[in-house]
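Weekly sync, protein design subgroup
Attendees: M.S., D.O., the rotation student, P.L. (late)

Item 1: inverse folding check
M.S. brought a backbone from last month's batch and wanted to see whether the design step gives back something sensible before we order anything. D.O. pointed out we never logged the input encoding, so this time it goes straight into the notes. Structure tokens as presented (218 positions):
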């Protein structure tokens, strides 16, 4: 794959940054795309831009503000509390259609820049129940993209079947553990690095890191 080009769906968080480094290892040329949907923290976009510049990849920021209008939730409305789903409900951070739109537009971008590979950090192991993070959805959309655009894209999901502990292990294998820990933004409250320590994203990230550092991934 080193002779091919890839586009990484990139938020500047732990997962997408790990995927960015995975892509840089596996593909000849890599570009990143970040979506601006008026999310809760615009710091996310700034963080993604900073990381992309530091690692030297071309970075696209696409306006997806319509998603904010259509899908009010805890990531698009500061007045909505960030909380896990209760009694089988989805968490308040679920953005309906987000990955459907992100991956579709990533496919359009890929066609324009001559890339056949699209990388996303979705995961069915530690995924909070989001339906658009499931392997079945990604495979279905991959077929749909190829049919809709008469092309042969491949959507890669390096994290699909691993948990947060194993994601930290992958970052370490790529030689980027400290980079991912110190420079990414996963926190729902907009705190870079280890985050606020209290929101669901931070709890999951911290638990995985502590388990990996204690040898739990072996």
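Designed sequence read out in the meeting:
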């Amino acid at each position: 794959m080193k002779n091919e080009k890839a586009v990484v769906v990139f938020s500047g968080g732990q997962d997408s940054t790990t995927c960015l480094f995975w892509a840089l290892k596996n593909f000849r040329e890599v570009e990143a795309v970040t979506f601006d949907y008026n999310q809760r923290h615009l710091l996310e976009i700034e963080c993604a831009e900073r990381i992309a510049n530091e690692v030297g990849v071309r970075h696209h920021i696409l306006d997806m503000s319509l998603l904010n209008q259509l899908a009010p939730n805890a990531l698009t409305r500061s007045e909505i509390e960030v909380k896990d789903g209760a009694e089988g409900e989805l968490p308040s951070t679920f953005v309906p259609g987000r990955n459907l739109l992100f991956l579709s537009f990533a496919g359009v971008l890929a066609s324009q820049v001559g890339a056949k590979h699209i990388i996303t950090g979705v995961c069915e192991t530690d995924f909070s129940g989001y339906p658009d993070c499931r392997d079945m959805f990604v495979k279905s959309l991959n077929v749909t993209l190829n049919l809709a655009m008469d092309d042969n894209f491949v959507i890669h999901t390096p994290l699909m079947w691993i948990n947060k502990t194993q994601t930290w292990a992958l970052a370490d294998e790529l030689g980027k553990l400290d980079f991912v820990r110190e420079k990414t933004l996963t926190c729902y409250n907009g705190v870079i690095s280890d985050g606020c320590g209290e929101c669901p994203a931070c709890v999951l990230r911290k638990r995985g890191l502590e388990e990996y550092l204690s040898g739990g991934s072996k």
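Discussion: The chain has a mean pLDDT of 87. The two ends are 28 Å apart (CA to CA).
Action: P.L. to compare against the previous round before Friday.
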